Amino acid sequence: MSNAVRQAPRIEWPVWGGLALVILLLLVLLKYQGVSDQPLPVYGHIADFTLTNQNGRAVSLADLRGQVWVADIIFTRCPGPCLNMTRQMKALQDALPPGSQTKLVTLTTDADFDTPPVLKAYAERFEADPRRWMFLTGTKQELAKLAIDSLKLTAIEKKPEERESPQDLFVHSTIFVIADKRARLRGVFETTGEGINPQNVKARILAAVRRLEREP
Predict the structure, then answer these.
(1) Choosing a second label site near 77 at 20 to 30 A (CA), which of 24, 125, 172, 189?
(2) What is the pTM for the complete model shown?
C-alpha cells in the first residue's frame, strides 16, 4: 500500500501535464481561429468609372457590383514584371472554382498603344476567359482615376531620358488588389520581390476571395 501511494504522483503528474498541453494547444488554435475569422479591412471605396474592355465593350462599376474582383495594372509592351504578373493572374483564373463569380480586371498604363484589339491579342495569348477576365483601357485620365485614386495602384510615365529601352515606358505597381461586392477595396497583395512565393500569394488571394464571396 505504501509503495502504491509513493508511486501515484509519478503516474498523475505526466497525465496532468499532458492534459495541460492539450488545453494550451486548443487555446492557441482558438485564438488563431478567432484572428483568421476577423473581417478583412476596408481600405477605401471605389468611385464609378467607365472604361473599354478587350472586346470594345464599355465596362462600368455597375458591371462589377455584387461580385468580388481582383485587379492589377500592366502594359503589353512591358519589358519588366508584367509578363510574370499576367501569368500569376492566369494561374489565379485557373484556380478559381467553376461556380465562383469572382472577376479579374487588368488595367493598362499605356492607353495610347493598348487599344482593345491589342489587349484582345494579349488576352488570347494568356488564354484569358473573357467571361471572367477583362482587360480595360480608356483615356489616361479615366485610367488614372480608377487605378491611382480608387485602387491605390501606381502608374508613372518615365521621361524619355530615363528610359533604358524603347519599351521602358512606365513605373507601375506590381501588386494585386481585391474589391468586394460593395465596391470597397479590401486587400493588397505583393506579387514580386525577394522572398515572395507566387504559390503562397495565390493561396492568400484565393482565401480572401472565399471570405469576400461569403459576405452579403
Answers:
(1) 189
(2) 0.79
